[in-house]
Known about the structure:
By secondary structure, the protein is an alpha+beta fold. The protein has helices spanning 2-16, 51-61, 93-102, 147-158; strands at residues 23-32, 36-44, 66-72, 79-86, 109-120, 132-139. It is built from 4 helices and 6 strands, in the order αββαββαββα. Strands 3-4-2-5-1-6 form a 6-stranded mixed beta sheet, with helices on one face.
Amino acid sequence: MAKTLIFAFLGVFLFTCTPEGDVNVVYKEATASVDKTVARIGVEGMMCEIACGGKIRKELSELKGVASADVEFVDGQPTNYAVVEYNPNLISEVEMVQCVNGIADGLYQVKEVEVTHYLPTTNASGTSEEETSEVNMTIDGIRLPGITDLIQGLAHFLR
């Protein structure tokens, strides 16, 4: 019985899950007049601005912690962008990537994310100056298990 369940579980993942690559995430800090965090999410698979872009915009806008979402679409480009202002205390980049990757059974794939945290600062004259620093990171934890991962896990479980 247990072996049948394990093989059924493996079969489901064999036919429904494919490994996803890592998503490169760049973190930047900049100064501006307001404190806010904005993610520019690079998405492959968008074919139009109205239907595809509208669906991505709608799904991201409905996430708790998202203040606004918009789409930068250029016809013929392999990668287009969702621009999301959000509260990083309420939602993470990983959750937004999972949201986009989960739309339409994986039709859209996030390939990169650029997160900019704008900090309000002023110079001696009382106006804000823009300054940017950058940190590159990779999100590893947002891929579905591939068949190799499942077989390795099963072999470990059966030992």
